[in-house]
Amino acid sequence: MGFLSDRLSRIKPSPTIAMTTRAAELRAKGRDIIGLSAGEPDFDTPLHIRDAAKAAIDAGHTRYTAVDGTPSLKRAICDKFARENGLDYAPSQITVGTGGKQILFNALLATLDEGDEVIIPAPYWVSYPDMVLLASGTPVVVECGLEQGFRLTPQALEAAITPRTKWLILNSPSNPSGAGYDRAAMQALTDVLLRYPQVWILSDDIYEHLVFDGFSFVTPAQVEPRLKDRTLTMNGVSKAYAMTGWRIGYGAAPESLIRAMAKLQSQSTSNPCSISQYAAEAALAGPQDYVTESRAVFQRRRDLVVAGLNACPGIECPIPQGAFYVYPSIKGLIGKTSAAGTLIADDEAFANALLEETGVAVVFGAAFGLSPHFRISYATSDQQLTEAVARIRRFCEGCA
Ligand SMILES: Cc1ncc(COP(=O)(O)O)c(C=O)c1O
Questions:
Q1: Domain contains 264
Q2: Where do the coiled-coil regions begin and end (predicted)?
Q3: Could you say which of 119, 239, 269, 329 has the lowest number of CB atoms within 10 Å?
Q4: Which tens digits make up the pLDDT trace of 313-356?
């Protein structure tokens, strides 16, 4: 028996963070690296939000707060759900944590026992399966390929449900595919879920505001109100307001689950950062210009990247509905050899060769549970994206 726990051996470090670290190491050695692996907006947090944080410090809001969020932030979150999602929640049904990540972690740790199953459509955000494993649950991964728009079908959902299914995790728009569920696609899933009362729905809505071409975002509790009493609607300020470093996420759910999550949080982080909570309140209750402006910028970048990648031999890149990622297929490159002599045996070999031979850092598809693909985060400048796409094209043209 070693010093480290069995629990720890079940999980691996985040592969997206690993790739970003590798790119930073190469850059520090003087290599010209374009990093497209990190999942955060490249903009600064809007000024009025930063000002609210400075004012909070000066007003002395620098102490412990209520465990799962200040009353005024919870009210701002209730207003947000009512205004943007048509969802009516009371403050007692709201929880605030240190990033959306802690909300997910709390929910899974508070509810899973050995043998409990969690359905996770792939490609998935890298942390879902590992969080389930840490909580002693069993991830049930359902592959949702490019041919079905990376979306879970009602048939595949129904086939994956067992008496031990405790949660279905949905993430629309998705990291890494950018795929979004419109009302009809969401309703097809909620119709199935109505028939299985043992299944709770964890809806990760963190990319809600990053939707393009007039796509209308919907969340399960809004589409099917009869599921509201077994849904955790999770969201946060990281992606919507360029606030990844502030670490504020939140969730809405029945009071019994919210209380259980608060119990757990009271014995781990106590409360999210007091100053960040005031900043998050300003983000949710204040002017929303940043949301619209950043959406337009991301849509332009998406178009630039999709067009550029589809001009690369061996790559097929569908057009995503949202988020700031594309998830192209490299089926046409598998088995070929790069100009520098690397065999592209799988998507991990592709991503490594791309980094070593062209200096472009992307994340390989196996990390997200669906191969052969790779993920590009286009949350960087147009100039960097243009250069990256040109390098990827030269790389693909050199493969034979
Ligand atoms: C799908 C998804 N959910 C949740 C998160 C967590 O974000 P945060 O903890 O910054 O709120 C991320 C961040 O990358 C994400 O991509």
A1: yes
A2: none
A3: 269
A4: 999 999 999 999 999 999 999 999 999 999 999 999 999 999 99
**Tokens 């899933």 -> residue:** 189
Residue nearest to atom 7 of ligand 1 (CA): 100
C-alpha dist (Å) from residue 341 to 185, 336, 362: 44, 9, 20
- Calculate how far, in angstroms, residue 374's C-alpha sits from the geometric centre of ligand 1: 19
The answer to whether residues 248 and 347 belong to one domain is no
Query: Domain of 152: which CATH number?
Result: 3.40.640.10
**Same domain? 317 vs 238:** no
Pocket test for ligand 1, best of 127, 208, 232 (most atoms within 8 A of CB): 127
Which percentage of the chain shows pLDDT scores above 70?
Answer: 100
Above 70 in pLDDT, residue 1? no
Check residue 346 and report its DSSP letter.
S
pLDDT in tens, 104-142: 999 999 999 999 999 999 999 999 999 999 999 999 999
Which pair of tokens denotes residue 321? Answer: 């509905």
Could you give the 3-state DSSP secondary structure of residue 233?
Answer: strand
Q: Is 305 helix (H, G, I), strand (E, B) or coil?
A: helix
CA 39 to ligand 1: nearest atom: 14
pTM equals 0.97
State the pairing for strand pair 34-35/231-236.
unpaired
